[in-house]
Q: What sequence folds into this?
């Protein structure tokens, strides 16, 4: 028997497809919600003090995107003890420093879970040839130190970093991410 020209198998197929569409929609909604919960929020990104050259709008947007992604990678790498997660966003001394930190964590059975509450970034230098950008970042972080997956201690800090970013093929990479005193 057919309903509206559909065979019995067609009705089952449509019912299965409807369920898959509903599940897919629910998954998409959850995914989009997860994307909007950004683990490295840029609360502010101030380029007014950049010298000797002004930062172009398209460059500022790219740097914000790439710096945010770098923090996501760093948070994941420290939590999962996977230094390879740094390769896409870090280079030079910054990559080496954080790889060493991750290897030390692994050696001692430790990890760090970081809840990133946001960053206030102030660009202080942008080279004339566009090959380097330096900024000061004030980051609001909760850090939980873990041993074998169990929490040991935690702290809520406001950390200050001097950041050096350099352009790569299609993105900006963090070349230096050095914690400094709050006076800088």
A:
């Amino acid at each position: 028997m057919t309903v509206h020209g559909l065979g019995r198998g067609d009705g089952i197929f449509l019912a299965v497809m409807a369920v898959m569409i509903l599940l897919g929609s629910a998954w998409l909604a959850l995914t989009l919600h997860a994307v909007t919960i950004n683990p490295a929020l840029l609360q502010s990104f101030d380029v007014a003090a950049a010298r000797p050259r002004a930062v172009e709008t398209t460059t500022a947007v790219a740097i914000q995107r790439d710096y945010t992604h770098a923090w996501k990678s760093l948070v994941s790498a420290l939590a999962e003890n996977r230094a390879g997660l740094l390769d896409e966003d870090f280079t030079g001394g910054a990559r080496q420093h954080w790889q060493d930190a991750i290897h030390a964590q692994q050696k001692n059975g430790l990890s760090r879970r970081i809840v990133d509450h946001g960053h206030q970034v102030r660009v202080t230098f942008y080279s004339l040839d566009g090959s380097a950008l330096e900024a000061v970042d004030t980051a609001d972080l909760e850090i939980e130190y873990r041993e074998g997956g169990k929490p040991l201690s935690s702290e809520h800090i406001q950390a200050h970093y001097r950041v050096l970013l350099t352009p790569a093929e299609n993105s900006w990479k963090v070349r230096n991410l050095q914690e400094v005193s709050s006076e800088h």
The longest helix spans residues 8-36.
